[in-house]
TrEMBL record:
InterPro entries: GIY-YIG_endonuc_sf (IPR035901)
This protein's name: ArsR family transcriptional regulator
Native organism: Variovorax boronicumulans
Amino acid sequence: MNMPQETRRALVRKYKETVLPAGVFVIRNTLNGRVYVSSSLDVEGAMNRARFELGLRSHRNKALVRDWIAHGAEHFSFEVIDRVKERDDDPAFDRAAELEKLLELWRDELQCTGDKGYNTP
């Protein structure tokens, strides 16, 4: 499909200006209940990257990779559990700081360290 250069530029500009949803996600081992909790300013992209890295056995969390290999991909679920609520009307709003607070809250809530999780303290 050939599109005019100006249309293409407008679409690229619109894509670059799009704010991606920031949030917290969990990878859950459905056999033993252990969880890995993480966050990103692009939560969907980070979750897909984690799934891809686990498939390649190259995820940075080695305990998670070991269980992925031992139990198989079918015994893991991926879920976005919270998203940063955007505040366009507040010029002092800090998405990264808000995301960090959400991550800390969910890590405490899900107790994702030790025997219950894959995260390190």
